[in-house]
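step=encode ok
step=design start
structure_in=
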């Protein structure tokens, strides 16, 4: 079953979108309290959650529970964020909160539906690129001189990967964690908190 969890009465989720989700064969579950969606997602074995990026700052406990539940469900809970802001800081927060896509309000309904359908069908959607992100200028200054070590760590790790290691969101999540660990070893005592996948080319 294709379960989509949406906040009831939310500014980013209109009636048109809810109707379209139903037409595409998805079951929409509206929720008003954070605890409701967490319990529902766990009982149904996952699905896709649409969430306002403002909740990341407003409800940090909710985001922490989402991360824990995603891990518990082995990546079967996917999170898509939307916001009326399109600045770097907002996008970075959504990545750190486990978001797999970002949409600026007003949401492009067709683009959102395409992304949801791609996630349910197991497609990766747009190609990925690997980008290391750090929003601390002092940390960036420490990292730049040791970038060759970072690249060496990448190359050694990526050469050992098999195509099957990249299957599904859980596989990509593990690769992201592994790369982040290796980067932080290479740049110690500096630290990188986020690794963004934008393109992975498998040859």
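sequence_out=
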């Amino acid at each position: 079953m294709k379960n989509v969890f949406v906040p009831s009465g939310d500014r980013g989720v209109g009636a048109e979108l809810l109707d379209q989700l139903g037409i595409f064969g998805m079951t929409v579950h509206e929720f008003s309290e954070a605890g409701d969606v967490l319990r529902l997602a766990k009982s149904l074995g996952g699905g896709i959650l649409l969430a306002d990026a403002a909740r990341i700052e407003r409800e940090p406990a909710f985001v922490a529970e989402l991360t824990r539940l995603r891990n518990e469900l082995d990546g079967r809970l996917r999170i898509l964020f939307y916001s009326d802001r399109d600045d770097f800081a907002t996008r970075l927060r959504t990545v750190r909160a486990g978001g797999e896509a970002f949409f600026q309000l007003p949401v492009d309904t067709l683009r959102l539906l395409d992304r949801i359908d791609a996630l349910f069908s197991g497609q990766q959607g747009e190609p990925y690129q690997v980008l290391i992100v750090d929003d601390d200028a002092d940390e960036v200054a420490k990292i730049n001189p040791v970038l060759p070590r970072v690249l060496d760590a990448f190359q050694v790790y990526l050469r050992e990967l098999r195509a099957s290691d990249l299957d599904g969101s859980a596989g990509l999540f593990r690769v992201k964690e592994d790369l982040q660990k290796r980067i932080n070893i290479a740049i110690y005592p500096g630290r990188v908190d986020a690794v963004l996948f934008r393109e992975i080319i498998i040859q």
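step=design ok
step=annotate ok -> Strands lie at 3-7, 27-31, 47-52, 77-83, 99-104, 130-133, 194-197.
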